[in-house]
Amino acid sequence: MKDNKDNLPQNRPSQNNLMTSIDAFFSSSPIKGMLQQMDNFFGHAFTEASLPVETQETTGEFIVICKLPGIKKEQITIETFDRYLTIGVKNEEQLETIDETTSFISNSYSMKQQKRTIPVPPYVKLNALQANYRDGLLQIRIPKKNIKQIKIDD
């Protein structure tokens, strides 16, 4: 019987050369730039995705507090649907730069929008909510429904 070692190719590329080729492919400038952009997007896109919200409850109302420093009242929206309250902030900026030496005008526009949806308890009157915004603090007060005490007879 003949040995099978004679049938195998003697000059097989080593695994190190293959890994080096793969590293070189992903290190090339266009691919590296695309991978870096993907890393940046997924690493930083959701860091400030939600608004900081705190809820409190008293005997008569359900209170939602949202800290929005530097935001104008006109940028804030409050929406209700079913048993949910949504707070939204929309920030638009437009910047125009004029270089008088070259008569070059540069316009840039950016928009950032954030929303936060909060479930509210079923025992509140969502259609009677009141909102107040002062000094970067949004307070939403939602009165509770009247609780009817039932007396038990002997």
Describe this structure in words.
- The protein is α+β, with helices and mostly antiparallel strands and 154 residues long.
- The chain contains two helices and seven strands.
- Strands 1-2-7-6 form a four-stranded antiparallel β-sheet, with no helix packed on it. A three-stranded antiparallel β-sheet has the order 3-4-5, with no helix packed on it.
- Strand 1 and strand 2 (61-67) form a beta hairpin.
- The termini are far apart.
- Cα-atom Rg, whole angstroms? 30 Å
Largest sheet, strands/sense/barrel? 4 strands, antiparallel
SS elements, strand count: 7
With strands numbered from the N-terminus, the spatial order across the biggest sheet is 1-2-7-6
Q: DSSP helix count? A: 2
**H/E series:** HHEEEEEEE
Structural class: alpha+beta
Contiguous low-pLDDT stretches (5 residues minimum) are: none
Overall geometry comes to: flat
Question: Mean pLDDT across all residues, rounded?
Answer: 80
Distance, first to last CA? 104 Å
Helical fraction equals 10-25%
Percent of sequence in beta strands: 35-45%
For this structure, the quaternary state is single chain
Structure summary:
19% of the residues lie in helices and 40% in strands.
Key features of this structure:
154 residues; alpha+beta; 7 strands; single chain; 2 helices; four-stranded antiparallel β-sheet; three-stranded antiparallel β-sheet; 40% strand; 19% helix
Q: What is the secondary structure topology, with strand pairs?
A:
Layout: H1 15-27, H2 29-44, E1 53-57, E2 61-67, E3 76-81, E4 84-99, E5 104-119, E6 130-134, E7 137-143
Antiparallel strand pairs: 1-2, 2-7, 3-4, 4-5, 6-7
